[in-house]
Amino acid sequence: MTRPSTPPGFSGGGHGVYGAAGSDVGVRNTISVDHGSLDMYIETGGGATISYYGYNLFSTYGGGFDPNDIAYAGNNQVPPANLEHLFIDLSTTDLHLELSGHRAGNRGLDLSGSFTGDIDGTTRTVTWDIGADEGVTGTAPLPPRSSAGITTATSLRLRQHSPKANSTPTGPRDAA
Q1: Which end of the chain, N or C, is more open, meaning fewer C-beta atoms within 10 Å of its C-beta?
Q2: Within 13 Å and on the Cβ side, how many CA atoms surround 99?
Q3: pLDDT digits (tens, 9 = 90+) for 148-169
Q4: pLDDT tens across 53-90, in order?
Q5: Where are the alpha helices (DSSP H) in 109-164?
Q6: How far is CA 134 from the centre of its chain?
Q7: What pTM does this model have?
Q8: Sequence-distant (≥ 6) Cβ neighbours of residue 62 within 8 angstroms
Q9: Who contacts 95 (Cβ-Cβ below 8 Å, separation ≥6)?
Q10: What distances in angstroms separate CA 57 from CA 54, 78, 175, one per listed residue?
């Protein structure tokens, strides 16, 4: 993911991904959104070559580069109009993927020949998501409790946005 910084090996005037003239560029499973200039800028008119381009999510591009050219791999996606539907919380720069409402989920390229973990160390075992985070559904373990029954964890982030069907809460409830 390249918001708002630029990944190692690339530089450019506010572009998310910048391929300089004369460079060989391979971009895959990359989310590049909401940059001051263009999300993807590859100077193909200046001699930059593209060895691979596919399975990315972005909206703006330039530099002679056209992601719709048949020579490039496909499956590129457009981000949602509101980036709050893509990332958990932009205000705190929590750039983990939302579980729905965007086109990054289950549309990535399987790169398990090179690595299997996401940015949090979660092993990707299903169809890969585009970007550094693999959106994971499931239940969160209960936080530790003190002997007085008071929760000692300072925060608990649940990434499952809706309860499982037929699930029953098992914790204490407030009296009505």
Answers
A1: C
A2: 8
A3: 444 333 333 333 333 334 434 4
A4: 899 999 899 988 888 776 666 788 989 888 889 999 88
A5: none
A6: 7
A7: 0.68
A8: 38, 40, 41
A9: 1, 3, 87, 88, 132, 133
A10: 9, 5, 47
